[in-house]
Amino acid sequence: MTGQQLTVDQLGRSADFGAFVRRQAAAGRLVVQPRMGFGDPGPMREGLIATKDADATTVGTLTLDSYTRVGELHAVEAALREGISLNGYPVVSHPQETTEAVLDGVSDARFPVQVRHGSATPIDIFWSLVRLRLNATEGGPVSYCLPYGRTPLADGVRNWQACCELYTRLRDVGVEPHLETFGGCMMGQLCPPSQLVAISFLEAMFFAQHGIRSISLSYAQQTDMGQDQEAVGALRRLCAELLPTENWHIVIYAYMGVYPETYRGAHRLLGRAAELAVRTGAHRLIVKTVAESRRIPTIAENVLALEYADRIARRTTELRPDTSQVLGDSPTYAEARTLVDAVLELDDDIGTALLAAFRRGYLDVPYCVHPDNAGRARSYIGPDGRLRWADIGRLPLRGVAEQRSTRRITSADLLKDLFHVRQQYDEEALRIGHDSDPELIRVTPARPA
Amino acid sequence: MSGDQSPASAGGAEADWSKGTVIVTSLASDSHTWNLVFLQLLIEECGYRVVNLGPCVPDDLLVAQCHALDPDMVVISSVNGHGYQDGMRVIHQLRALAPLAATPIVIGGKLGTDEDGARRVAELTAAGFDAVFEDAHDPVTAFRGFLSAMQPNERLLETADGVRR
Ligand code: B12
């Protein structure tokens, strides 16, 4: 819609995403969400409807395709012309009416829809969102840049600043924009939780500095439940202490690294993520499906994952408010706080501070090959299952974090750590056998050939 | 990203790289990196020097690097589901380079979003790839087989009395 007047439909559609999630949380419900995106408008609409109708408290997702992420719109056109299937919904290329029709009557005040992409050059995407009054999306100057390709970090920061400012203009037409940090996921795996917390939090501060008032902060499940609980507690404490808005919530991502291949292993890992979310008082969970290790999931597999996560969430209770993890009183908080303080001291402008931090190695993502990442820090999975620093590089964590300096990491070590979670959950699944938990075999998808 | 940025410098540093140089690369739209790290380690352990171009490699950068390095093999990895489309586009550009006309060029990973792998393999092979390693068919074992069948390297034999490549 080009004019300033919103239709009734758009007004409903443009309810504040953050307020919606917080309202559900107040009613004791964990909001669950898929990572769903199809190139064709038909399946995309069907997927949204199925998400809305699932037996769970859900919000919808439009995940964009990889060509749109990197601005290769001619490749989108080639794919659409030749009937080659895309790995997500090309929101910039489909005509606005097409996307309006996908959302029509589906996205409303009861069912907000978020757009997820992964672009360090997202200005076209943001213009499309603004035109469509799609007021919830995800990203960040660091997290949508370093793990996503070759765009210089300085460009990522500049682009994301411009996009935040563009997005806030939705308020001119009475619509509150919402942004979620992706910083709690860097590279999907093997980044120690304290740094995930720090980057996720710093991205939230960046959003706030550029006018965004409705914010969510991500944290991706890692290798150890205790450490993950500490991390979410740390993130919450940082928000309570420093984030200049009340309208924030935490979103947990089910494991983002190499996923179990067995049906049961995949669901157990998802179940653990749901438990993590409820125990730590996070308000939203993004699920993974049984197809994760192989291919983009079907609509049915997504619904199954949403309903399974919801069931686990309903039988889980929040940790007692006086536990150290809830209070954020932990080694993970100490490390994260040290990183955050060191970065914030570098400059009043958070974008500038982030650039300086990566230049100096105050932030350094293990195994990230982006040229603006120092690439000195290394991590490993300890014998107790916690993610640890093998080498802190120039991170300002001397005396704060333990590091193992005795042995260098060999290729075999790295591969073992990459496949650690998959192996653990698949082995457990095979040990338990196949019919002891009837909940898991309600719908058995055919195994792909 | 500099051409020889090595994400896997964590391991295998003292390996024997006498068999030649291999370019490991992703394609323009694919940001996945761990697959590249994995392949670099695997190929280094088989005795090659690896130049890892990293994620999201635009066509012209890939072509320029292949031209500059004249590698003994090019290994393309894509897992985001766009490998078929990106691979079909890039192979003609690579084969058009004189030094690459007969160089082994292979592609592997999760190459499409649907399960029509057989058709993709046939089309990519017809378009000029020497081998296609789709995920469903134990690609790593097949690839090891391919690597060992490549030996002894004919181009190395030609220069056996001269400088090692
Ligand atoms: C980690 C991860 C990410 C990280 C990547 C971080 C980074 N910079 O590397 C993040 C979160 C950023 C990410 C983003 C996306 N991802 Co991703 N990701 C994964 C995940 C969970 C693990 C991949 C991994 O690290 N594997 C470890 C490495 C060592 O192995 P591998 O990559 O699986 O490769 C193996 C084989 O394929 C083979 N192989 C690969 N290449 C080659 C080449 C040759 C020659 C040979 C012989 C063998 C070979 O060898 C490897 C070892 O067995 C997978 C799912 C999974 N596997 O569990 C999805 C997955 C690959 N991602 C997927 C997608 C679609 C995306 C996105 C496009 C968005 C989305 N819908 O989630 C984005 C954007 C990426 C882009 N622009 O291209 C899909 C691809 C689906 C498809 N092909 O149809 C997967 C399968 C998830 C899914 N089921 O939907 N992802």
Automatic annotation (TrEMBL), chain A:
Q: Which InterPro entries match?
A: Cbl-dep_enz_cat, Glu_mut_E
A GO molecular-function descriptor: cobalamin binding
What the entry lists under Pfam families is as follows: Met_asp_mut_E (PF06368)
Q: Does the keyword Ribonucleoprotein apply?
A: no
Keywords of the record? Cobalamin, Cobalt, Isomerase
Query: Which BP terms does GO give this entry?
Result: anaerobic L-glutamate catabolic process
| Listed name of the protein | Methylaspartate mutase
TrEMBL record, chain B:
This protein's name: Methylaspartate mutase
Lineage, opening ranks? Bacteria, Bacillati, Actinomycetota, Actinomycetes, Kitasatosporales
* Residues in B12-binding domain copies: 19-157
List the InterPro entries: Cobalamin-bd (IPR006158), Cobalamin-bd_sf (IPR036724)
What superkingdom does the record give?
Bacteria
A molecular function GO annotation: cobalamin binding
